Amino acid sequence: MAAQLGSLSLVERDDPGASIIEVMVGFARTLRHAGVPASQERLQAMIAALAHLDVTLAADAYWAGRVTLCSDPEDLERYDMAFALYFGAQRATEGRRIPPPSVARAAPFEPAGGDPHDERTSEQPKFAAQASRHELLRHKDVSALNPAERAQLKRLFALLAPRVSARRSHRYRSASRGRVDLAQSVRRLLRAGGEPSQLARRRRRTKPRRLVLLMDVSGSMTPYAEALLRFAHAATRAAPARTESFTLGTRLTRVTRELRLRDPDRALAAAARAVPDWSGGTRLGDTLKAFSDRWGQRGLARGAVVVLCSDGWERGDPTELGEQVRRLARLAHAVVWVNPHKGKDGFAPATGGMVAALPHIDSLVAGHSFAALEELVQVIADA
Amino acid sequence: MHPVKPELSDPTALAAALGDAGYLADIGLATAAYLGMKMHRPIFLEGDAGVGKTSLAQALADVTGTRLIRLQCYEGIDATQALYDWDFPRQVLHLRAAEAVGVTGTDAGRALEESLYDRRFLISRPILQALEEPGAVLLIDEIDRADDEFEAFLLEVLADNAVTIPEIGTIRAESPPLVVLTSNRTREVHDALKRRCLYHWVAHPEFEREVEILRRRLPEASEQLITEVATAVRRMREADLLKPPGVAESIDWTHALHLLGARTLDRERAAATLGAVLKYQEDSVRIRDTVLAELAG
Ligand SMILES: Nc1ncnc2c1ncn2[C@@H]1O[C@H](COP(=O)(O)OP(=O)(O)OP(=O)(O)O)[C@@H](O)[C@H]1O
Ligand SMILES: [Mg+2]
To answer: How confident is the model at residue A125 (pLDDT cuts 50, 70, 90)?
Structure first.
């Protein structure tokens, strides 16, 4: 086990408690991406709580996290799911009325696990070891995962809830309070024959932005395609009406409808069937143009947060790609480029396509590992 | 009262002490309460009606050998009911008495005015009482019934463990009270308040624990009646009722059945006493056709 843990080697530390706290902090981060508002302040409270308990016990860690990070019954479901997935331990549900989601009942990372209450009796390194294995998996490049790891990671995607935060639209709607709408008031005044009537008021309307995901599925991106599609599925589940997904290769395919299937595996299979050009070549510039012509220009990308996932390997003309990204950037509220190679040592955006696109994008993020995709959730939320 | 304060070294020890005081807490609730004591943070309890939120506070006071100070919230509650008020009739009496002996002159006048706001005319309401009584347990019950403004006010007091009375000065708790807040979720409580607290959702007890609670509360009831009631109540909670029965209801039901001489749960007596456990006509109709229909006649 120790050899397997390699550089992380959390369980080999002298103080197993310190490593658990580290892991719990990572766990809180995951929880935040899963939609539980586990703020920095709450994180501090969790660490303070752990100091009063026996952190090497799963039950103590579970409760310290739960009473400090959650604040609503709705959080609990996500918390339980995250905890089960993260630590391979489950809690007895104790007659809660909301049944835990079926994912939580799926086999945890380790076949052992069970109820953390029982773990007071079992040896403590197991809990720490599972937690550190999890951390390792979270940071591992998804292209290097073995089938077992891939299966484990699959379940973690159920925790992601990528969503764009609500925007303040420039349109106003009528309201009984808020700023006085002069034009409307004058109209009313005239209609009333010059008699002053009620002032019309208006308020800014908050309208959520759309999230558009454009995923390169050409040969060089094949190792990342599954993870990216799972990410897209999580986003679709979080906001079905406001998420649009497309694959880019030698041609453009819209997979929005396929990804709306609830079950992630079925959704991915359906998307895979819909895409005719898996692992083929790339003509990024051309397919982006096709996107803007057919969809983007007509409103789909207007004011949206557009996430383009590609390594930037371009068979076609890089200047065309640059031009198309510029066009997209003009339509969209923000363009985020996800390049899995950014997570690798010594990365510089040297491919011709990337260089041409760089001046027009708002942020460049990695996306090669689950942890990197969690960061992407944050970038999307902040866009 | 418990004169000897047990050594509460961890959540399990606290759960055991609560058990001795007649309250059977699961490890989650015991951990929340334990952390509340250790971290000096309020405990925020939410859960269905009758799951034991209020009685936990009493049990905590018993265990720590202190007094329970309770503030029941309601719509329109404000600082004069929660914190302090001036005893106006007594102030008036004091003023009259001073006038009768003939207080004159500006200095004497000012002194008189000051004496009107003497500590003895101050009426301490629950929060002030709790700040002044070392280690008290302060129960702020059903906070969801109070208004937003009251929440904001509460937030301030809880943050400082102190109150400032303009005429007297700041009163700070020597050792802050253990605060238990409860909510029935009739309204969303503001996150600013929740953030200061340890949050715990109080679930209905699992079967074994409920049986144990019933045994303790009604030692005279038959064992079979108790397990059958606990089973039936558990099924009712799964039935998505308007008001799922809490522990309070299962205690009442068992009690009613016992008074009718029941040693087991039979359909006829269950139907006759259903009002003890279900509070809505719609719920009763549904349960009569499902859970009760399956009971032995
Ligand atoms: N864990 C427990 N151990 C012992 N008695 C319990 C327990 N839980 C509940 N009870 C009993 O159930 C009854 C109801 O409890 P309580 O009034 O505390 O519930 P509550 O959650 O505050 O309800 P409400 O929301 O209606 O105020 C009380 O008589 C209490 O003694
Ligand atoms: Mg109560």
So the answer is: low
A196 is in which domain, residue-wise?
168-207
* Same domain, residue pair A248 and A301: yes
Min Cα distance A90 → chain B (Å) is 14
Query: Does residue B89 share a domain with residue B76?
Result: no
Q: Nearest residue CA, atom 13 of ligand 1?
A: B248
Name, in order, each residue with C-beta under 8 angstroms of B279's C-beta and a sequence gap of 6 or more: B243
Q: Is the C-alpha dihedral spanning B219, B225, B228, B232 positive or negative?
A: negative
- For testing the chain A interface, which of B185, B187, B201, B207 should be mutated: the one with the most A CBs within 10 Å? B201
Ligand 1 centroid vs B55 CA: distance in angstroms? 5
Beta-strand (E) ranges in chain B? 43-46, 68-72, 84-86, 122-124, 137-141, 162-165, 169-172, 178-183, 198-201
Q: Which residue has the higher pLDDT, B136 or A356?
A: B136
Distances (CA, A) of B180 to A239, B60, B194, B213, B285: 37, 10, 12, 22, 37
Number of domains in chain B: 3
| CA-closest candidate to residue B57, choices B49, B47, B45 | B45
Give the mean model confidence (pLDDT) for residues B141-168. Answer: 88
Pocket test of ligand 1: the residue of B54, B229, B252 to mutate, having most ligand atoms within 8 Å of its CB, is B54
B245 and B275 housed in the same domain: yes
Residues with CB under 6 A from ligand 1: B 23-25, 47, 49-55, 184, 205, 213, 246-248, 251
**Residue A350 confidence (pLDDT):** 64
B4 within domain boundaries: no
Higher pLDDT, A115 or B207: B207
Considering every ligand atom shown, identify the ligand nearest to the alpha carbon of residue B70 and give its number. Answer: 2
Q: Which of B24-52 are b and which e, b meaning 16 or more Cβ less than 10 Å from the residue's Cβ?
A: bbbbbbbbbbbbbbbbebbbbbbbbebbb
Q: Ligand 1 centre and the CA of B52: distance in Å? A: 3
Count Cβ atoms below 10 Å from residue B103 Cβ, excluding itself: 15
Average pLDDT over residues B283-296: 89
**Structural domain includes residue B5:** no
Taking only the tens place, the pLDDT of each residue in A33-66 is 888 888 888 988 998 998 899 877 888 889 999 9
CA closest to A98 among chain B residues:
B238
A191 pLDDT tier (thresholds 50, 70, 90): low
CB proximity list for A105: less than 8 A, separation 6 or greater: A90
**Are B156 and B27 members of one domain?**
yes
Strands B137-141 and B178-183, bridge-based pairing: parallel
Tracing tokens 């929060």 back to the chain, one arrives at B127
pLDDT band at A128 (very low <50, low <70, confident <90, very high): low
Q: At A251, phi and psi to the nearest 5?
A: -145, 175
Mutate to test the pocket of ligand 1, among B209, B247, B253 (most ligand atoms within 8 A of CB): B247
Subunit contact A49:B35, Cβ cutoff 8 A: yes
In this predicted structure, what is the pLDDT of residue A6?
25
For residue B53, give the ligand nearest its CA. Answer: 1
Number of A to B CB contacts under 8 A, please give it.
76
Enumerate the residues of chain A whose CB falls inside 8 A of the CB of residue B35: 49, 52-53, 64, 67
Q: Do both A301 and A193 map to the same domain? A: no
Distance between CA A72 and CA B260 in Å, rounded? 41
User: What pLDDT does B177 receive?
Assistant: 94
Domain that holds residue B107: 84-121
